[in-house]
Design goal:
Helix content: under 10%
Structural class: mainly beta
Shape: globular
Number of domains: 2
Radius of gyration: 23 Å
Strand content: 35-45%
Bound molecules: calcium ion
Largest sheet: 7 strands, mixed
Length: 381
């Protein structure tokens, strides 16, 4: 009996053990990062992008490698296995260089993304082309979507999104929209929104000053009453409210205005994978719906967007394109109480300037617990 058990355990180990390819197949992989839009040439008289952060994800082995390009715009990853890889790179462009090229100042980053590239001994040099992307000023600074660890049951009504004014001037939240993005549409011009909720106000009712936060809760209540592993959102600034579905409505917390709600008892963020966007558009119904009852929102109206997934290696199966979010945040199991938050890139006039290169693989970090209305990096608990 005991022997049988030992054999069984050995078999289990043998089954789960990964097959390691022989050392001889390993290769050196060179990534060259190129900017043909003129920003790098303006600064260095070459199209080769130095000091770019590069991330390489293996699809089979589920490993990630990060590196930085040298003065020739190159980085070499040694001893790599032949596989399909996804390549991603990002670099912030100093405002004075943007002004030199365009004639006016603008916050830009360069992003490159090449998914699913077959690498072997004959194909081990990759040219990654960068495109300029606009950096947001009003940002999604945190999304707490994972839900609370079971106590006693799984709990996900404590989700919230935190927005942050990353700029030096006041923004008005009035009529801005938070939406989530459907998967599987190949559409250059529009995102397809499953849910879309709008801030109330008539133009100047809800100012957000530089360095200020706003919290939008799924339900603005103290969730510790429902699950001791959860959080208190009774102080949230806004909440989603879905009429006729048994949703709670805290009378002291203003409700977001429902523009579109395809399904669900609330505006629930998936605990595994989703993409959330912040939108500014004059008429949200101007472009109508697709055949799946999803609201069409032009990509040019998106102020910021963040995509997250439980499995970060699924970078080739994304909802948002490279102009909105070239990467992925997250990488943890549901119901862990963990959260995702932007990292601080800089401080300016005493306020944190958050990183927004439109690539969540670089811009976001994972927190063990959410930080409601403050930043973990700024000396949180
Ligand atoms: Ca609700
Ligand atoms: Ca309410
Ligand atoms: Ca952004
Ligand atoms: Ca926070």
């Amino acid at each position: 009996m005991k022997l049988n058990l030992i054999i069984f355990v050995c078999l289990m180990i043998a089954c789960t053990e990964q097959v390691t390819p022989p050392e001889s197949v390993r290769l050196d992989l060179t990534v060259t990062v190129i900017d043909t839009f003129g920003y790098t040439r303006f600064a260095t008289d070459t199209t080769l992008v130095d000091s770019a952060a590069v991330m390489v994800n293996s699809l089979t082995y589920q490993t990630a490698f990060s590196a930085q390009t040298d003065s020739n715009g190159q980085t070499c990853l040694e001893q790599m296995l032949p596989d399909k890889y996804t390549f991603s790179a990002t670099k912030r462009i100093p405002v004075e260089i943007v002004e030199g090229v365009l004639g006016f100042p603008l916050e830009l980053a360069l992003n490159g993304h090449a998914p699913n590239i077959e690498i072997d001994a004959d194909h081990n040099e990759i040219d990654l082309y960068m495109v300029p992307v606009l950096i947001g000023q009003l940002l999604i600074s945190e999304i707490y979507y994972s839900g609370a660890p079971p106590n006693p049951a799984f709990y996900f009504h404590d989700q919230f999104i935190e927005l942050y004014n990353n700029s030096g001037s006041t923004f008005y939240l009035d009529s801005l929209i938070i939406a989530d993005v459907s998967y599987g549409h190949i559409d250059e011009d529009y995102i397809h929104a499953v849910h879309a909720y709008m801030f109330p106000g008539s133009g100047a009712d809800y100012p957000l000053g530089p360095g200020q936060f706003v919290i939008v809760a799924q339900d603005a209540i103290n969730h510790l009453d429902k699950n001791p592993n959860s959080i208190d959102l009774s102080g949230a600034d806004f909440e989603y409210y879905v009429k006729g579905k048994g949703d709670v409505d805290n009378p002291d917390t203003p409700n977001m205005i429902q523009l579109h709600h395809k399904y669900g008892i609330d505006f629930l963020y998936s605990v595994m994978n989703n993409a959330i966007v912040l939108v500014k558009v004059d008429d949200p119904y101007q472009y109508g719906y697709d055949q799946f009852n999803e609201l069409l929102i032009p990509k040019t109206a998106i102020m910021d967007g963040v995509e997250y997934k439980e499995d970060l290696n699924e970078v080739d199966l994304k909802r948002l394109d490279i102009t909105i979010d070239a990467g992925l945040a997250g990488g943890f199991a549901p119901y862990t109480g963990r959260s995702i938050e932007r990292v601080i890139a800089d401080t300016k006039d005493g306020r944190a300037v958050l990183m927004d290169n439109n690539n969540s693989s670089f811009d976001f970090q994972v927190l063990d617990k959410p930080t409601i209305g403050y930043l973990w990096d700024a000396g949180g608990e």
